[in-house]
């Protein structure tokens, strides 16, 4: 076959069903597609909308979807297909449910006229996706949407992880992957990047961040109380650059009533202009032994919106977060330190005010606050009720342009932008990954 008629290599992409995992995998597959790789994206019906921007950018021969029904599970409510609809304690049930896709995917691959040469899988699913790839005789490429600092720190404790069957099994399967892709960049923490290659025992480890967002507009969103154009118009009306605090805690964190009251009081006392993203109540993470009905979560303090009219926006539901963080008027961001939010804040050039709550948030705090001095600590813990006076002071001071944390953060941003440029470490990593896939039989 001549080189001109040679088919592009075909891979299967399987995401973990959470926006912080699906969206970076969408962005990664876009970069592979423009480098000549054909991708079939496995997705369940309620998560299909995440792929709309990706599908619209490529023809059907480059990006395809394999839509499979979400398998039922006795411990998951009917209709649940995404982690934002359950607590973090349900993730093992989610893994178990999704493992039922093994046989349908196996049959699809065996009957496909141009079967995939590799599976690009979220590491959370490696307990069954890696055995699937092995059974098909193809390679597994693990995708880890966290920073290399988090991954290397956690997996350095492998002996402790082995006591937990699932995490030990996931670690073992991931370490057996042919290659690993991190949603991070080598310059962020050179020592941990090298350490991670040591854990993997090979050099097929690629840091690819910051990935260009396929689309930051309404296609990636959902229902909202304030349309995007009104939010941007409000920001445009702000006369002073870096004068707005953005407050948001991602798709899986829901604040209880006491936390909402303390945060609302802090925003009032601070005197700053702000945008507060309030997640829809009744879903996501709630405190142990706490009522999970909507009356106890996401309760906006009575009268707050009237009292802050003109200087504060409270948005219920989806927000155009990347667009907000890139606006000239926004100066700081009170965040849970989810890695996707960290990268969006970095690209926006807004200083992070850290309230880590669970899982990798604490490792991100160790890196950004304790080691690099590039973010401001506010409070720690999923159940913490902040002191409103202290938090108000932190929010007000976070907008000061000469803070040492802001200087360190902007230096990190410059390194990230350089990594993504042609010739940069992440750009070259994407080129190398695509070239390696192209050489698969």
Tell me what the structure shows.
The protein is of the alpha/beta class and 441 residues long. The protein has two domains: 10-214 and 420-438, Rossmann fold (3-Layer(aba) Sandwich); 221-401, Rossmann fold. Helix content is 40%, strand content 14%. The protein has helices spanning 19-33, 52-57, 91-98, 102-111, 126-136, 148-155, 158-161, 165-175, 190-200, 228-236, 257-270, 304-307, 321-325, 339-348, 361-371, 388-397, 404-420, 425-438; strands at residues 10-14, 38-43, 63-67, 118-122, 139-144, 179-182, 205-207, 244-247, 273-278, 312-316, 330-335, 351-354, 376-377. A seven-stranded parallel beta sheet has the order 3-2-1-4-5-6-7, sandwiched between helices. Helix 11 (257-270) links the parallel strand 8 and strand 9. Residues 1-5 and 283-295 have low confidence and may be disordered.
Q: Helices and strands: which structural class? A: alpha/beta
**How many beta strands in the DSSP annotation?**
13
CATH fold call of the largest domain: Rossmann fold
Under the CATH scheme, the architecture of the largest domain is 3-Layer(aba) Sandwich
**What is the CATH C level class of the largest domain, in words?**
Alpha Beta
- Work out the radius of gyration: 22 Å
Please, what is the CATH homologous superfamily of the largest domain? Answer: Glycogen Phosphorylase B
Query: How far apart are the first and last residues' alpha carbons, in Å?
Result: 14 Å
- Uncertain runs: 1-5, 283-295
Mean pLDDT: 88
What's the tally of helices?
18
Coarse morphology:
globular
Give helix % range.
Answer: 40-55%
Largest beta-sheet characterization: 7 strands, parallel
> Major sheet: order of its strands?
3-2-1-4-5-6-7
In percent terms, what proportion of residues is strand?
5-15%
Q: What oligomeric state do the depicted chains represent? A: single chain
What is the count of distinct domains? 2
């Amino acid at each position: 076959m001549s080189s001109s008629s040679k088919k592009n290599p075909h891979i299967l992409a399987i995401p973990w069903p959470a926006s912080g995992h699906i969206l970076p995998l969408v962005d990664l597959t876009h970069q592979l597609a423009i480098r000549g790789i054909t991708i079939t994206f496995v997705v369940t019906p309620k998560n299909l909308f995440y792929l709309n921007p990706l599908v619209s950018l490529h023809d059907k021969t480059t990006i395809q979807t394999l839509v499979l029904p979400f398998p039922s599970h006795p411990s998951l409510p009917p209709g649940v297909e995404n982690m934002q609809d359950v607590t973090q304690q349900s993730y093992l049930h989610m893994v178990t449910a999704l493992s039922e896709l093994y046989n349908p995917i196996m049959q699809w691959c065996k009957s496909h006229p141009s079967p995939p040469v590799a599976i690009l899988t979220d590491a959370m699913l490696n307990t069954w996706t890696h055995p699937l790839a092995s059974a098909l005789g193809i390679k597994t490429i693990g995708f880890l949407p966290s920073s290399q600092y988090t991954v290397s720190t956690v997996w350095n404790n492998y002996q402790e992880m082995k006591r937990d069957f699932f995490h030990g099994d996931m670690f073992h399967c991931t370490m057996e992957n042919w290659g690993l892709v991190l949603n991070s960049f080598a310059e962020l923490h050179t020592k941990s990047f090298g350490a991670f290659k040591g854990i993997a025992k090979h050099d097929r480890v690629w840091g690819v961040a910051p990935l260009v967002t396929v689309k930051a507009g309404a296609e990636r969103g959902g229902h909202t109380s304030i349309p995007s154009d009104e939010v941007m118009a409000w920001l445009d009306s702000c006369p002073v650059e870096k004068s707005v605090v953005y407050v948001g805690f991602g798709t899986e964190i829901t604040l209880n009533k006491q936390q909402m009251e303390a945060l609302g009081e802090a925003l009032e006392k601070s005197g700053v202009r702000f945008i507060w993203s309030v997640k829809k109540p009744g879903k996501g993470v709630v405190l142990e032994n706490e009522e999970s009905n909507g009356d106890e979560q996401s309760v906006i303090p009575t009268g707050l919106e009237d009292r802050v009219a003109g200087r504060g926006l409270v948005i219920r539901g989806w927000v155009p977060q990347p667009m907000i963080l890139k606006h000239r008027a926004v100066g700081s961001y009170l965040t849970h330190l989810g890695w996707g939010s960290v990268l969006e804040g970095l690209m926006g050039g807004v200083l992070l005010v850290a309230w880590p709550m669970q899982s990798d948030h604490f490792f991100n705090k160790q890196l950004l606050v304790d080691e690099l001095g590039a973010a401001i600590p506010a409070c720690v813990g999923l159940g913490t009720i902040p002191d409103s006076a202290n938090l108000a002071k932190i929010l007000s001071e976070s907008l000061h342009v000469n803070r040492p944390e802001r200087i360190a953060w902007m230096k990190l941003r410059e390194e990230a932008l350089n990594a993504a440029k042609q010739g940069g470490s992440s750009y070259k990593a994407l080129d190398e990954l695509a070239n390696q896939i192209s050489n698969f039989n």
